[in-house]
Amino acid sequence: MRAGLWNRIRDNLWPRMGMRRYSLYLRKRVMRLSASPHAIAAGVASGAAVSMLPLIGVHFVLGFVLAFATRGNMIAAAIGTAWGNPLTFPFFFAASYAVGDWLTGGGGVNASEVAELEATGAQLSNGLFSGGLHAIWPTFKTMLVGGLPLAVLVYGVFYVVVRLVVTRFRTLRQARLARKRDLENPVQSSTN
Length: 192
Fold this sequence. Notes:
Layout lengths: L4 H9 L5 H13 L5 H14 L8 H11 L4 H7 L8 H15 L7 H14 L12 H48 L1 H6 L1
């Protein structure tokens, strides 16, 4: 049975299992990867960092390239790209534009740009590229300039947090396994 259009749209925007369960699933998936804490952290950070860039459609590829360059785990990079999704992209792109506008010395949107944006909006109603790439290039360039420092910041934060969490998880897991082993074989543990 084919899902209706509404169900397909909903499934792409919101996981069936709910966001909380989905985030727990991703966390457990990352924790169970059999790679070093550095590789996992670098992979997740790579995927999250490239999600800050306005290059929708190539985030996986860019995440893999950055993970390869930093010796990160490719599966972790793919999981990290989940940071960028239809719910978060508007915030990321607005922040990228604001930072890019500030870095390039722009003063926000003035009256002449409003008229230009309205004309571009009319062009875009005929199709995204009906007015040519030059119609969206100024906005895209500003977002790209602003997205780069945000990507570096996100990479640093994700790397530190994920590495600490993975290291702590593995330490606690080893201690739990040691206690379980001691309970199963109390004679061997007392002779050691």
